[in-house]
Amino acid sequence: MTVLSYLIPISLILGGAGLIGFIYTVRSDQYDDPEGDARRILSDEWDDHPKP
Amino acid sequence: MTAPLRHQTAVCPGCVAAPSEAVDTAPTEARLAISLPTIHCQACISAVERGLNAVPGVRDARVNLTLKRALVEADPDLRAVDLVPVCEALGYEAHELDAAALSATATDRAGRDLLLRLAVAGFASMNVMLLSISVWSGASDATRDMFHWISAAITFPAVIYAGQPFYRNAWAALKAGRLNMDVPIVLALLLALVTSLWETSLSGEHAYFDAALTLTFFLLAGRYLDHRTRAAARSAAEELAALEVPRAWRLDAQGQEVEVSVADLKIGDLIRVRPGGRMPVDGEIVEGRSELDRSLLTGETLPVLAEPGRQVSAGEVNLTGPLTLRATAVGEETSLHRMADLVAIAESGRSRYTSLADSAAKLYAPGVHILSALAFVGWYLYTFDLRTALNIAAAVLIITCPCALGLAVPAVTTAASGRLFRAGLLVKHATALERLAEVDTVVFDKTGTLTAGTPEVVNLEDLSREQLSLALALAEGSAHPLAQSLSRAARAAGVTPVAVTDLREVPGYGTEARLAGRQVRLGRGAWVGATASTTQTTTWLDLGEGAPVAIRFADSLRPGAAAAVSALRDAGKDVRLVSGDAPAAVEDLAQRLGIRTWVAEALPEQKATYVQDLTQAGHKVLMVGDGLNDTAALAGAHVSISPASALDAARVASDIVLLGQDLAPIAEACGVARRATRRIRENFRIATIYNIIAVPLAIAGLATPLIAALAMSTSSITVSLNALRLR
User: Fold this and answer.
1) Beta carbons of B573 and B675 less than 8 angstroms apart
2) Less Cβ crowding at N or C end of chain B, within 10 Å?
């Protein structure tokens, strides 16, 4: 059962990472325009470098 | 997308609803919003953003495709009006939006808060479920205890954080001495946590940590769905309001026009109203002649003459010439606002409606409390073991907990509202669908609702070719709706205008010109010397050689009006027509649509009483109207619909807003509402069946956390899937 001593922390850390990632996306307004964001990937305007 | 507006709201959450004055007094940059109803793809986004960013003074422009809106950060002197032509030059329909009216929905704080709590409950329940499944599949002794302790460590903070909306609601209900759905929820969460912790500390076998978390998760999902449906409707409704920018032109001491906000107008101000503009205040005309369209206020289709000395009310539309008013009442004092007070009185009747969810909760909340208390007392008397009795009481509460009930209504209303939105109907009120399903009588307003508010020539064939070509020549000299309609109809009939000289418009009367030495006129009867009086909308053509010729108009039907009326009648509903217009016009329309019961020349109060009388006779009335004279009736009816072209006050008073021109979706809405209500009832039945199976097990002490989890998840998923059938 020693396997549990690192599997459980791993599962908690992964879950926590998912949660933190989700909170980050909510906080940075990433769900405000789902339709537009889905289309924007088709744009090649800022493909070479990020928007300044 | 909210970046441009967020700064304004982030400073102080309390200022979210009220546009902050600080922005107006010391502007360092302007935040502008433009509605772009026709954009639909990536090419549109790029074109609009590139076009707007190229305008000098624009700092950043971003298009939001979901809201079909562009938000622009710009230098303070740039105005949204200046950007509209830029978008139109690119080939996109564009309208200016009042950024102040939009700020409330810029950041949906409540929605974001619910979403975060939902996320915490979701991630925590995934982790705890992982541990619980190992317990159910055979972990024992020290391993089981360790798993329970870890679960407890995750569950306690997660439930305390995520369940806050329930604690608040339950506490508010208890303080008011009532029971609502949230009271048993909170009790179940509390009991589950306490007994599980107790069990864990005694190395017990059953712990309900996973149940407490999935319960929170499912219930929050229902709350979030509910919130999102309403937030979407609210933001769309706000956009309609923001399309009417409250702006007026005030004349300063030098007689120059200065653009000001309507809110800044004061009594005694001189205000210029251009042709096509709406009166911002009540006032008296001091200069200019024109005609006024009062249909939104009274339902009359005949324009009335406006000349110096005449009183005008806010909301009337100036048709032909520029007018100068002296304001006699502004803001809350205008007749427009006083009429809105009628609405407040009528509305109290509607708040008495109890939704299906509320009536279910009324039955349910005391029921589960009694059941679980009985289980506790029974088992305590049977075993004299507090631990067993408490465990069983907790199991009963958890299993009966209204997961499915909490999802049953929001899932259905979300699906139904989404479907109606695609059909062009915006459901604003939470219980509007349930009320719409009960409707048996439909009362329509005429002007602007069943009719499009644009006149159509009816006796084109009565005029000779020469008369028509002269009429066309004269009509093209004016922007008056009747003249426009006449020239459209004549052009469509292949008529070409005859050459006239000295063509000029006499505001308020008509147009005149010279043709072969004769004075020819097109306009009001009294002006051209016509004697016959008519009740129909008529313009007269004076050929300069004796009796003038009448050109008669009728209001054109709104698209889908005939289809909507016949579909409603086929569905067994009693369709009626109540209008403020003259009897002849109303009778004509009623006959065209096959409506048997109609009332003409109804005053606003009479419309409201008409609806009230029907209600008292036991009918459930759906009122469809657009004008200020309909607002009291709209608010007093069981449920109400207004078109997007309606006055703001009418839209606010109604439960559902019709976004397009077409009236046909109204009939569909009634059908969807009936099906939605049936689904809600079905969902209640499904939830009850699960309870009937699981509750005896719980009371008998046979329920395990596994059974609780299964019952909860399957019932929640079944009701959600059942709701999705409506799409």
Assistant:
1) no
2) C
